[in-house]
Design a protein that fits this description.
Layout lengths: L8 H20 L14 H16 L5 E8 L2 E12 L4 E2 L6 E4 L2 H14 L20 E7 L5 E7 L6 H6 L13 H10 L16 H10 L9 E2 L4 H13 L3 H10 L51 E3 L1 H12 L3 E2 L2 E2 L3 H7 L8 E2 L4 H6 L5 E3 L4 E3 L14 E4 L5 E5 L4 E7 L5 H14 L5
Parallel strand pairs: 7-11
Antiparallel strand pairs: 1-2, 1-16, 2-3, 4-8, 5-6, 9-10, 12-13, 13-14, 14-15, 15-16
Length: 442
């Protein structure tokens, strides 16, 4: 017998809407959600993060944030707070897209290690194998004169720059924004890598070939392999990936990393239809009263900046972080071997000194307790560092206010997204680590 029940239009619409909302919710969650107590965390203690950042936002120190915390593969906190655009008063959303600046570096480092796993690159390969312009580099060596002034001698590099140097920032390259070696600084300004008073860490206006040529003509600031100095090394690593793979960096990473991990908004620019989702900063930093212009990511760049050009959502980066925490795989998709992840998350700095600043001081304001791996800051001691953490955790952050860390011993992955490029970002990194750590109760 046929049923006489026929749903009304309103009922059909409600059902369709419910299905649509459910699908959107599923798509927005980077990992399965769970109650904090089910994975050894306290809901009450975890709520301190919301309380703290709501206060910072209400008092005008941050425009808005997205926070994602996962333990044992379960998402226990995923919140958007404040404004995506403080001028337009657009609310922050979980799918807001952020300029991640130097959080591009770990992604590109993984791309390079995928090529190592393919047998196309070796860590000890000279960079000149892929980019011949770097075969004969000069080093700018400072010399103190009797009258107190500094002059510089040019000497040949004692050994070639190798791929490992690019991954651990021991290549002798520099960032103009962070450098005082005058010949190197002058060369970076002339090449267009650094323009004082304008948008920082942005060399996307030149082609890859132009970038390689200009960077090879600038002197190194240290002998290769001797000193950690934060630099354009990962921009150059991106050019190595392109030369070794025969593909544009964005295309290689889309094929081998972003699509397999369903990092749907990760890339090197924001398509026009997604621009309304892009996070914006305060027009003037509330602490310094200065302007910090952010990258224009509305169109494809001339070169894909491996050092600072990426964009992503919190969900994108949480999926990447959980993949690394899992030893290179997520949801049955493997992008790296566990042996490669362990190698990347091991210290490769050793007793090498930092130039202007060592990596722990650069990232967290703590000069002890941290070394540097292949693309990540790595904790080497349980104590010494002035922040919570455990040996083996690895992390990095971005100039625009983004931050993440992966803590294998605690089975923890944390992603913090904000568009706040002022000096307060270092303070928030340390606060975030403390507030997450105190919420772990088992």
């Amino acid at each position: 017998m046929k049923s006489r029940y026929r749903p009304s239009f309103a009922q059909l619409f409600a059902l369709a809407l419910a299905v649509s909302i459910s699908a959107l919710s599923y798509a927005a969650d980077p990992l399965p959600a769970a109650k904090p107590e089910s994975v050894g965390m306290s809901s009450e203690r975890l709520a301190k993060l919301s309380t703290y950042f709501k206060k910072e936002i209400a008092e005008g120190r941050l425009p808005g944030v997205v926070i994602a915390v996962a333990r044992k593969g379960k998402l226990v906190m995923y919140e958007s707070l404040g404004a995506q655009d403080p001028v337009a008063k657009t609310p922050m959303k979980k799918d807001t897209i952020f300029r991640i600046y130097s959080m591009t570096k770990p992604l590109v480092s993984v791309a390079a290690m995928q090529l190592v796993e393919d047998g196309v690159i070796q860590l000890t390969d000279p960079v000149s194998k892929f980019l011949p312009e770097f075969a004969k580099m000069q080093v700018s060596v400072p010399k103190q004169n009797a009258d107190g002034t500094t002059s510089y001698d040019m000497v040949p590099a004692a050994r070639p720059i190798i791929v490992q140097d690019l991954l651990r920032h021991t290549a002798g390259l520099a960032y103009g924004e962070l450098q005082k070696n005058q010949p190197a600084l002058d060369a970076y300004i002339k090449a267009g890598f650094y323009t004082p008073g304008q948008a920082e860490y942005d060399s996307r206006g030149m082609t890859p070939a132009e970038q390689v040529t200009a960077l090879s003509k600038a002197p190194l600031i240290h002998q290769p392999g001797t000193t950690f100095d934060y630099s354009m090394a990962v921009d150059l690593l991106g050019r190595v990936v392109e030369a070794a793979s025969g593909k544009r960096l964005a295309d290689f990473m889309s094929e081998r990393l972003f699509k397999p991990l369903k990092m749907t908004d990760a890339g090197f620019y924001v398509p026009a239809d997604n621009m309304p989702r892009l996070a914006q900063a305060f027009e003037t930093d509330p602490f310094t009263k200065q302007k910090f212009p952010l990258l224009n990511v509305s169109a494809p760049p001339k070169n894909d900046s491996g050092g600072a050009g990426g964009v992503a959502t919190a969900a994108d980066y949480m999926r990447f972080s959980q993949m690394m925490l899992n030893g290179g795989a997520l949801n049955g998709v493997r992008v790296l071997s566990p042996t490669t992840v362990r190698l990347m998350a091991s210290d490769h700095m050793g007793d090498r000194k930092g130039g202007l600043m060592n990596p722990g001081a650069l990232m967290l304001g703590t000069p002890e307790g941290y070394g540097f791996g292949l693309g990540f800051l790595v904790r080497t001691q349980p104590g010494m560092a002035g922040v919570h953490g455990t040996v083996g955790e690895f992390m990095w952050a971005g100039y625009g206010g983004t931050y993440f860390w992966i803590e294998p011993k605690e089975e923890l992955a944390v992603v913090f997204m904000a568009q706040a490029p002022g000096p307060s970002r270092g303070y928030y990194r340390k606060t975030l680590k403390a507030l997450v750590a105190q919420a772990i109760v088992n």
